[in-house]
C-alpha cells in the first residue's frame, strides 16, 4: 500500500461510524456511515495532511457519490499530490 | 393580554440604510451582493462574494469621540433603533423609560473588534490592544448601546441563537409586551461579521455560494454571508391608539423549538413544531396564512427541508402559499436576519406585496412550492409567517397580521 493510501485510510478510520475493525481501499464510504459533516471534516483533514486544496461545496457535491470507495478518495488525493509536485 | 402592534421600523441593510430604501429595493428585486471590501486582504479569500452594508459612514451617525466605543454591529443597531423610534414618535420620558425593554438578537457580537484585535497581537506582534476592546466586542453591546443612546431603562439583553437570534429576540419582546410586563419594546437584531476570520470559518463549512444566492432554485450553490440590523418598536394596541400612533402591523404569534438532533443539518420536525407553535400562540389555522418569508438560505439542505416542513405544517394549503426568501437579495445576516425579514414581512402584509426570491432559475424537484420567483407580487396578505432556523437546531417563527 502506498504512503498516501495508508494516510488516507488513517483519516477515514477516525471518521467512520460503523463498528468495523479495518478499512480497506475497496470499502464504500456509504458503508462506513460517513455523514455530511464527517465528509467536510475528512476533506479538511486530507487538505491539512497533504497540503492540497480539494474543491468541495456541500450544496452541489456528495462525496459518497463522487467518491464511491475509499480507493476513489486515495486516487483523488494522489492526483492532487502529484499535481502539486509537478 | 394585550394585542401587540408595530409602530416603528428601522433598518440598515445591504440594500439601503433606511427602511424605505430597503423595502423599495426588495420589491424591485435588487441585489445587495458584491465583492468583499471590508477585510484588509480580500484577495487571500476563496469566498469573494458577500452582502455588505455599503457606504456606511459612522461619522454621519456618531460624533468622532464616540467612535472608539462602538463596534460596527452596535453602530448598525443604534442607527436602526433610532429610525424605528423616530417613526414611532415616542419620547422615552419617565415612567415609560423604565417600562421599555431593549431585546436584541446577535449571532456573533463585536467580531470586527475581535478580528482587528487578534490581527494586531498575533500578526503584527503589537503588545497592547485598544482600551475599549472588551466593551466593544461583548455580545451584549448592541443592546447596551441602544439602551444608552435612546434612554431605555427597562429589561435589556441580547439573545443569541445564531441565525434565529433576532426572531427569538422579537418573539420574547412580543410576549413581554403582550403579558404586560413592559409597556413598550425596542427589539430586533444586528450583525456585522464580515471579517477575514469569519469568512475563513464559513469557507471551512463548505456551504457558501461562489457567486449568487438562489434559494429554492435548481442549481443553488449555497448561502452568501450578509450583515446589517433591523429594529422595531412594539407597543400594546391600546397604548398606540391612545397616543394616535400609526399602526404598521400586528404581531400575533410566536413559536419556538429545538431539534435536539444534528449540530448543522436542518430538521423537518423541529421546523414544523416552531411553525405549529406560532399557529397555536396566535390561534391561527394554516389556511389563514397567505405569505411566508422563508428562512431560505440557498443551501441544498435548508431549502429542501424547509419545503418539506411547510408541506407538513400547512398540508394542502402549502401549495397556495406565496413563499419567498429575501436572503436572495441581502444575503444571510445571521443574528440580524430574522429582524431584516420581519421588517419585510410587516411591510409585505401592510402593502399586500410579496417580495420576490431573486436568482431563481427554475424548479428543483425537492422544492415544489411557489417561491415568488424573480418578481414581487401584488396579492392579498392578511397574515404572514417569518421563519428562522439556526445552526444548533434552534428554531423560531413569528406570525404577523394586517392591522384592522
Textual characterization of the structure:
The complex is a heterodimer of chains A (86) and B (404). Chain A has helices spanning 3-15, 36-50, 63-66, 70-85. Chain A is mainly alpha-helical. Chain A is globular and about 40 Å long. Chain A starts with a helix and ends with a helix. Chain B has 404 residues and is α/β, with parallel strands linked by helices. Chain B has 12 helices and 14 strands. Chain B has helices at residues 19-28, 72-88, 111-123, 133-137, 141-150, 165-179, 196-205, 237-242, 268-282, 300-314, 327-330, 337-351, and strands at residues 4-12, 34-35, 49-50, 100-105, 156-159, 184-191, 228-236, 249-258, 291-293, 322-324, 353-354, 377-378, 383-390, 394-401. Chain B has a 10-stranded mixed beta sheet, with helices on both faces. In chain B, helix 6 packs across helix 12 (337-351). The radius of gyration of chain B is 20 Å and the shape is globular. The two termini of chain B are 18 Å apart. The chains are: A mainly alpha (86), B alpha/beta (404). The A-B interface holds A 35-37, 40, 43-44, 56-60 and B 204-210, 219-222, 262-265, 298-301.
Amino acid at each position: 500500500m502506498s504512503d498516501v493510501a495508508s494516510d488516507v485510510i488513517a483519516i477515514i478510520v477516525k471518521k467512520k461510524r460503523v463498528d468495523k475493525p479495518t478499512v480497506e481501499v475497496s470499502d464504500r464510504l456509504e458503508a462506513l456511515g460517513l455523514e455530511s459533516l464527517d465528509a467536510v471534516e475528512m476533506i479538511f483533514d486530507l487538505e491539512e495532511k497533504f497540503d492540497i486544496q480539494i474543491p468541495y461545496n456541500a450544496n452541489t457535491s456528495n462525496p459518497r457519490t463522487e467518491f464511491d470507495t475509499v480507493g476513489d478518495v486515495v486516487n483523488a488525493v494522489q492526483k492532487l499530490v502529484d499535481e502539486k509536485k509537478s | 393580554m394585550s394585542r401587540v402592534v408595530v409602530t416603528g421600523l428601522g433598518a440598515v441593510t445591504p440594500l439601503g440604510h433606511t427602511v424605505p430604501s430597503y423595502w423599495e429595493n426588495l420589491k424591485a428585486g435588487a441585489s445587495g451582493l458584491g465583492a468583499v471590501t471590508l477585510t484588509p486582504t480580500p484577495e487571500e479569500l476563496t469566498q469573494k462574494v458577500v452582502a455588505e452594508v455599503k457606504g456606511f459612514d459612522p461619522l454621519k451617525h456618531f460624533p468622532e469621540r464616540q467612535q472608539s466605543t462602538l463596534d460596527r454591529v452596535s453602530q448598525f443597531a443604534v442607527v436602526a433603533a433610532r429610525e424605528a423610534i423616530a417613526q414611532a414618535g415616542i419620547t422615552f420620558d419617565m415612567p415609560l423609560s423604565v417600562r421599555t425593554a431593549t431585546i436584541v438578537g446577535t449571532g456573533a457580537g463585536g467580531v470586527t473588534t475581535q478580528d482587528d484585535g487578534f490581527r494586531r497581537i498575533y500578526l503584527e506582534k503589537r503588545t497592547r490592544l485598544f482600551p475599549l476592546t472588551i466593551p466593544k466586542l461583548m455580545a451584549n453591546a448592541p443592546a447596551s448601546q441602544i439602551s444608552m443612546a435612546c434612554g431605555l431603562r427597562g429589561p435589556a439583553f441580547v439573545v443569541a441563537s445564531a441565525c434565529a437570534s433576532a426572531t427569538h429576540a422579537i418573539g420574547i419582546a412580543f410576549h413581554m409586551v403582550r403579558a404586560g410586563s413592559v409597556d413598550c419594546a425596542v427589539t430586533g437584531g444586528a450583525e456585522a461579521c464580515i471579517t477575514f476570520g469569519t469568512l475563513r470559518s464559513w469557507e471551512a463549512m463548505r456551504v457558501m455560494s461562489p457567486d449568487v444566492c438562489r434559494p429554492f432554485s435548481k442549481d443553488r450553490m449555497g448561502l452568501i454571508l450578509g450583515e446589517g440590523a433591523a429594529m422595531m418598536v412594539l407597543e400594546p394596541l391600546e397604548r398606540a391608539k391612545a397616543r394616535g400612533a400609526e399602526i404598521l402591523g400586528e404581531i400575533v404569534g410566536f413559536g419556538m423549538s429545538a431539534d435536539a438532533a444534528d449540530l448543522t443539518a436542518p430538521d423537518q420536525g423541529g421546523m414544523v413544531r416552531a411553525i405549529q407553535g406560532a399557529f397555536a400562540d396566535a390561534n391561527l389555522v394554516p389556511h389563514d396564512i397567505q405569505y411566508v418569508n422563508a428562512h431560505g438560505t440557498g443551501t441544498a439542505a435548508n431549502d429542501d427541508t424547509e419545503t418539506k416542513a411547510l408541506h407538513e405544517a400547512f398540508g394542502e394549503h402549502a401549495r397556495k402559499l406565496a413563499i419567498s426568501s429575501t436572503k436572495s437579495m441581502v444575503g444571510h445576516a445571521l443574528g440580524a436576519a430574522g429582524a431584516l425579514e420581519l421588517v419585510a414581512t410587516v411591510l409585505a402584509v401592510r402593502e399586500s406585496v410579496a417580495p420576490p426570491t431573486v436568482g431563481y432559475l427554475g424548479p428543483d424537484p425537492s422544492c415544489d412550492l411557489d417561491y415568488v420567483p424573480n418578481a414581487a407580487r401584488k396579492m392579498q396578505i392578511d397574515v404572514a409567517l417569518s421563519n428562522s432556523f439556526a445552526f444548533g437546531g434552534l428554531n423560531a417563527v413569528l406570525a404577523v397580521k394586517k392591522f384592522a
